[in-house]
Fold this sequence. Notes:
CATH class of the largest domain: Mainly Alpha
Number of domains: 2
Largest sheet: 4 strands, mixed
CATH architecture of the largest domain: Up-down Bundle
Oligomer: single chain
Distance between the termini: 25 Å
CATH topology of the largest domain: Glutathione S-transferase Yfyf (Class Pi), Chain A, domain 2
Radius of gyration: 17 Å
Amino acid sequence: MKLYQFDPAPASRRVDIFLKEADVSIDTEQLNVRDGDQFKEPFNSLNPFHCVPFLELSDGTVISESVAICRYLEESNQGKIKLFGSTPKDRALIEMWNRRLEIDGYIPLMAGIRNKFERFDGKVLAGTRNHLKRSGSIVKRGEDSARILFERLDKHLDKCFFVAGKEFSVADITLYCTLELANNIGLNVDEHANILDLKTRLSERDAFKNE
């Protein structure tokens, strides 16, 4: 089993934090997606989505998408610590918040970043090289969506220590990486005291520290 990563990529960062928090050790190879390694063989055939991260199993199966990779590693008993929940209710709440953070924050902000900065010319869609033009309206929609999410989440955190309740979960990893995207696009979240408090507590955990 081998994990293909590119450490600077937000999706790779999510998996890296998960591996550290769950105490999972796995053989990893870095692909420089900026130089187009993902379009070269054998990586092109392994993962036609041309994105990192992706996980190659011993039987040749390839799993892409960060949350799918993390879920596989946890459910295949690779992880000693469970971050997707241990009861039906916990699993449902963690899934709910993780999806909401992705739909309203992580994905719109990632799209916004790819549409805001010139360095993504020809790379507006992850895993592609084409002539799609950057769009300012996508940038604004991403920022607006994230603002609404953060307002709702900040109120929710009045009664929760972590995103999905009392225990740390994969949803907290998604939140932290979403906040990093917000910072990268220039979106200020200083007015949301509860979110900033949680971000500070997360940043103090070893898995979240950039080495």
